[in-house]
Structure formats: C-alpha cells, structure tokens
Design goal:
With about 325 residues, the chain is an alpha/beta fold. It contains 12 helices and 13 strands. The protein folds into 3 domains: about 80 residues, Arc Repressor Mutant, subunit A; about 110 residues, 3-Layer(aba) Sandwich (D-Maltodextrin-Binding Protein, domain 2), CATH 3.40.190.10; about 90 residues, Periplasmic binding protein-like II (D-Maltodextrin-Binding Protein, domain 2, 3-Layer(aba) Sandwich).
C-alpha cells in the first residue's frame, strides 16, 4: 500500500527492526536479502528524517523518534496479525464464534440436529443461535450481521439476497395415531370433512400446497390457524379428529414420537425447495463462506437433493436469462 509519500509495507520493516534490533535478523524474518532490508531501512530514515536505528553495543538501538513511533507501529501490526490476516486464513477448528440462523420452529427440528452434530466435530468452539423473525425484517438482520443465514423455504425472500437450494421435499398429511377412521390414505370425502390445522407464519404467503388443493377443487375444513408447527402433534393427541398437511421431513420427525402417523393426501402435491439465504455483504466473508459450505455438505445426502455449486441472487422476475430454479 502507498500514499503519495509513504509505502505502508515499510511498517513491517520498522516492526521487524523494533523486535530484532538487527538488520540481518530482521531481513531473515521478512524473507528479504540484507541489501533489500538496508534499502527499505534507508527509505524509512529518509521519510522520517531520522536515523531511527543506530548501531550500539546492544545492537541496532531505536532513536528517540523511533521509540516515540514504536507503540503506534506495534499497535497497527498487532491489529493486522490478530484482526485482519485471520480473516483470510479462517480456521474453524480454533475459531470461537456464535452463528445466528433465521428459521422457523420446523427448521429447528429439521436443520439443527444434523448441523449441531457436524459443528461440534469440525468447529468445537463455535455455538449456534436460532431466530424466528417476520420476512420484512430478514434482510436488515442479514445485512447488519445480526443473523448469518436464513434457512427454509421463503417464497417472498428479498430479491437482494443470495440463495442456494439445499434439497427438495414434498408434503404429506398427518393424523393422530388414535384416529381409527383413516387408513393408509385419505379419501377425498375424509379430507374435505375432517377439521384441519394449518400453519400461518408471520409475513409469509399461504403454504405452496394451497394452489394444488384449489386446482383439484378440494375444499378444506380449516378449524385452526397456528404460527407454530410444533404444537400440531400435541393438539392432535388431545383432539384425534384433527388432521394437518405438513412438509414431509417434519412429518417424519413427528411420527418418531408415536403421536401421529403419516398418510397419503388424496391428491399429489408439488415438492418444495429448502434453501439457505445470505446477504451480499457477507458473500466473501470467510466464516460465512465456510458456514454455507458446512450447511450444503450436511444436507447433500438428503432425499431428492438438488444442490448446485454456485449461488445467485434470488430472482423474482426473469433477468439476464437467469432461471428462477437455478441457485
């Protein structure tokens, strides 16, 4: 780096001379020849109009001016070594950091367990924090760094965010294990007559399967809207006549606890994409790049995975020939 009058690379020469008190040893530390080191030292002397380091019995001793400059030079070089350079050589094994992820309570069940398992192995000093926030607040949180990634399926994600598709999952219907009326699949009559529980997340559009039901002419008897996925199986345990259509992976988690069971809905429902989103400000941040790679690798083996190597801003309209489904 240079200004009109000063080459900032000379600060490393000054720093080495302060610590080594020897032109020969300072040159060896910086990987310079002794001639190049002497030339750089002469440039420093010329700029500051001072010898800076003079030969004594104790070695190259700093002058009064060099002593006055030494504290500032050491502070600058320490900041470079401890704050700037580590950003270019990110080491997850030694880093201590809390990563913040925006997700729903469903996301906590689906994403967090496998992520926690991997994180504890490859980055044992890092921690996780999850947030559930309305869609209008997501961009500001990611832009400020108060959140690192958004994980989930957000049809109305801001256009400015980058998105990478992780895997595809479909929708299934769940019923209480106490419900004896429904067998392996729901009939259309059962589906339309039984009371439904649906999840309405703050700031989100209707579930993507709504259009599929409407196109088939199906009418749901919606009894309860709730913002929480996790309450559904508990409600069904108390009210066995309730049914709900939820993401398949979530239904599989619920069914492990023996409260609900998975059945086929009466019509085929389109799959949906679970993705990770991040702000362009942190697109090249080494820690966030590593975190995105960890998330991608964690869910590479999930069913119907469709993860591409590159990421693009989320397109809402066709721009420059970009495909809406490419990530």
């Amino acid at each position: 780096m240079h200004t009109d009058a000063f080459d900032y690379n000379l600060l490393t020469v000054f720093d080495a001379m302060l610590r080594e008190r020897s032109v020969t040893r300072a040159a060896a530390q910086l990987g310079l020849t002794q001639s190049a080191m002497s030339h750089a030292l002469n440039r420093l002397r010329e700029f500051f109009d001072d010898p800076l380091f003079v030969k004594t019995a104790a070695g190259m001793t700093p002058t009064i001016k060099a002593e006055a400059l030494s504290e500032t030079v050491l502070e600058v070089m320490t900041a470079m070594r401890t704050r700037v350079l580590p950003q270019a050589s990110f080491d997850p094994a030694t880093m201590q950091r809390t990563f913040t992820l925006c997700m729903t309570d469903m996301g906590e069940l689906v994403f967090l367990p496998p992520l926690m398992k991997r994180l504890r192995v490859v980055a044992p000093h890092c921690k996780l924090r999850s947030l559930q926030v309305p869609v209008p607040q997501i961009e500001a949180l990611l832009a400020s760094g108060d959140a690192d990634l958004l994980l989930g399926s957000v049809q109305t994600a801001p256009e400015s965010l980058f998105r990478q598709q992780l895997f595809m999952h479909g929708f299934v219907t769940i019923v209480s294990t106490k419900n004896r009326q429904v067998r392996e699949a729901l009939t259309i009559e059962q589906f339309e007559s039984m009371p439904h529980v649906t999840v309405s997340l703050a700031g989100r559009t209707s579930p993507s399967y709504d259009a599929a039901f409407e196109s088939q002419g199906l009418k749901r008897n919606i009894y309860l809207h709730t913002p929480h996925f996790l309450s559904i199986p508990l409600l069904m345990e108390q009210q066995p006549e309730l049914i709900a259509t939820v993401p398949e992976e979530l239904a599989n988690v619920f069914s492990r606890y023996g409260i609900v069971r998975v059945v086929k809905p009466p019509v085929a429902l389109p799959p949906y994409a679970l993705s990770q989103y991040w702000h362009p400000r942190f697109h090249h941040d080494p820690a966030i790049v590593w975190l995105r790679q960890l998330v991608k690798q964690t869910f590479d083996s999930y069913p119907e995975t469709d993860v591409s190597s590159d990421a693009r801003p989320v397109p809402r309209r066709a721009k420059s020939g970009r495909s809406k489904r490419n990530t």
